[in-house]
Write a structure and sequence with these properties.
The complex is a heterodimer of chains A (115) and B (110). Chain A is mainly β and 115 residues long. Helices cover 0% and strands 53% of the residues of chain A. Classes of the chains: A mainly beta (115), B mainly beta (110).
Chain lengths: 115, 110
Amino acid sequence: EAQVTQNPRYLITVTGKKLTVTCSQNMNHEYMSWYRQDPGLGLRQIYYSMNVEVTDKGDVPEGYKVSRKEKRNFPLILESPSPNQTSLYFCASSLSGTGGIQPQHFGDGTRLSIL
Amino acid sequence: GQQVMQIPQYQHVQEGEDFTTYCNSSTTLSNIQWYKQRPGGHPVFLIQLVKSGEVKKQKRLTFQFGEAKKNSSLHITATQTTDVGTYFCAGMSNDYKLSFGAGTTVTVRA
């Protein structure tokens, strides 16, 4: 089954404790992206990756890191989490090509609470 | 940077009525995508518009992309309870950055 898998689905942690949210897709997609969703603000892009070893900042990259060492994986790293990073996070992937980025396939989300 | 504004934020609709949600971008878009998110779920792709002035229909849903490729709309006719959820537009810039609108949350009165 084609899917985007995020782990963990839920996490409660404390300020300053490094954490990683994993994202994996089995569709051989080139494009992968991370979003955070907050009430009234919609989805805001954190980072995106056009392909292996290529990453770019989205609209809200501060406080986050990503890596794209393999095509299928795109982990989101919070080196020193703070309470303002409490949010619902989505990973997404899609094909890309001369026609631009194709429809995004989203994971089920990770609800992160930073105390 | 690119901004995509979406209105209204909330739409309360009587079952059977029509409504429209609008998106406006501060910059010209290469394409625009529309997604629907049910409560507790993740966004699900509905459609992508690429050409200036493009109009696409999916049953009771009509999507339009403006001539200047800076605005778009989603019109739903004869609203049903299954239309409940939040509808997002997402504008793609030339550098492949995707900017989502804040969404229109739709509730339906039976």
